[in-house]
Amino acid sequence: MTHFLIGMSGGLFRFERDSQKPAVLMPATQPTAFAIDPSEPAIIYCATYNRGLWRRDDTGRTWLPVGTPQSYYGPEVYGALPERETTFVSVDPQKNHDGRHPVWIGTEPSRLYRSDDHGLTFQLVNALDSLPSRRSWAYPPRPATHHVRWIAHGESGQIYVSVEFGAFLRSMDGGKTFEDRRSDSPLDTHVLLTHPLAPRRIYGALGDGLMRPGRSFGESLDGGEPWNYVSRGLEEMVYLYGMSINPSDPDDIRVAASPNPGMAHGRDWKAQLHDSQNNRQAMSGRHPSAGPSSIFKRVGQAWKEDAIGFPRDHSLIPVLTADPHRPGYWFALSNLGLFEQAPGKEGWQLIANDPAWENMHPMSLLPLSASSEKTCNREIVAGASTGKPNTCNLGNTTMDSNISLSDQDLIEIVRSYYSAVDSRDPDRLAALYLDAPTTTLKFNADPAIVTVEAIRTFTAGFSLAVAGIHHTMIEIWKTPLLGNIVPVDLEPSRENAVTVASTALPIFSFTKGSDDIALPATSIFTIDTETKKFISVHNMFDIGKIYAALNT
């Protein structure tokens, strides 16, 4: 069953199909975009305006800020994401050499950042300040600035960026340099998409139709040169702000359209340019001028309205998305609710609403498969099912599922440990342990560290000693390797506990200029099934190499 992460101008919400109403996850935020890690679907990023970047590693209820490694009490560190106005986030479909996907962030003012460690630290890739067209960039509500509206990725590492308002930009070298806008390229691209089944094709939902009739929808069939415009059928609604594409058909497209920005966003556009930033009255209350806003589908070289059941006459312009798990299902998020269109159906059906949304602007929407978070989802598995009963194959991970915690629960619990270690945050790591007198952390044959407070103290000291940690190639097993062979001194299994084994490749960095050290590691985790917290963690790797590096 599909559930949703919903971004409104008043906060982040979660909606499950069997619930009464959406649940508030982060109030008073403005989620501008979501991005999901294709290799680790439990990892989702949320860019917010004025609140920075957030990441979740579980079922979507726990979110942590990332890109903020600076400690209040510590010296200045490298890798912080300075802008709080994160206007877009994407996850690169291509992996780095360590198996992780780069995370890309666009900001206001327009800059491009990249993270190679799941968002823990960021590097400025390009400030976009050397392009001749930059002096003409301006976002109409705040003409003194501009921002990255969208980031899209090509089949061979190309990066496409739209700046609102002012340019479509293309990089052929991983963002190091960008080609400035072409004479035939769009200026005001609100949604910029690519499709894996049409690798060279780029799609744009545009605001250009306000200035140049016939330029509401643009596409390039050759990676950005040249551009063609298909706008027949959109003559009454020239302003596009939403778009989605069927994941199994690159020609099946939906767009969200309105006659002009004022009707799309619910305010008089000319008055908006003169409002004071502190004029709260203008930003609150109902949207008396909202609508019409509608939905159109591509039919050959034209567009046909497809809005039966959608409240087109009074809705703000909706956010559109196609269900990535069930091709043919479409969703539209409006201030008047969340709507669904099923395959073969012409009409839209209301599936969720919250009275508070009426005063909010829809910003972002991410449908999620419940099975991808609670059980095995074979659509995202890297490889085929093992075919064995009661087993679950996730990439290179195979585990018996006849236990009180599901396979996905165990994977998320263990991955949360590695993520917390990588964060070098002693409080975050200590919070994963069961607060009991016998809770232990052990390395090799060294004496055990006992109690949560002792583990926190050790972690704080270790985190100060090294400059960085990140884990790669994580594998997890519930069934012992090599038949039933287990360490002879392993404690007998206890009630309400389960033991899992894991291998990983932690990479430790020290000071700038020094070599990183990669140490293959095996860990044994004993987990309390009621609290999902660690009773004990036993790590085995050559820690002597770390001590040697710290003494040099």
> Could you state the CATH homologous superfamily of the largest domain?
YVTN repeat-like/Quinoprotein amine dehydrogenase
Low-confidence stretches: 268-286, 374-403, 480-490
**Distance between termini?**
55 Å
Broad shape: globular
Tell me the total number of β-strands: 36
CATH class placement of the largest domain: Mainly Beta
Q: Which range best describes the helical content: under 10%, 10-25%, 25-40%, 40-55%, 55-70% or over 70%? A: 10-25%
Please give the domain count: 2
CATH architecture of the largest domain: 7 Propeller
Characterise the protein shown here.
With 552 residues, the protein is mainly beta. It has 2 domains: 373 residues, YVTN repeat-like/Quinoprotein amine dehydrogenase (Methylamine Dehydrogenase, Chain H, 7 Propeller), CATH 2.130.10.10; 160 residues, Roll (Nuclear Transport Factor 2, Chain: A), CATH 3.10.450.50. It contains 8 helices and 36 strands. Strands 30, 31, 32, 33, 34, 35 and 36 form a 7-stranded mixed sheet that branches. A 4-stranded antiparallel sheet has the order 3-2-1-27. Strands 4-5-6-7 form a 4-stranded antiparallel sheet, with no helix packed on it. The protein is globular and about 75 Å long. The termini are far apart. About 11% of the residues have low confidence.
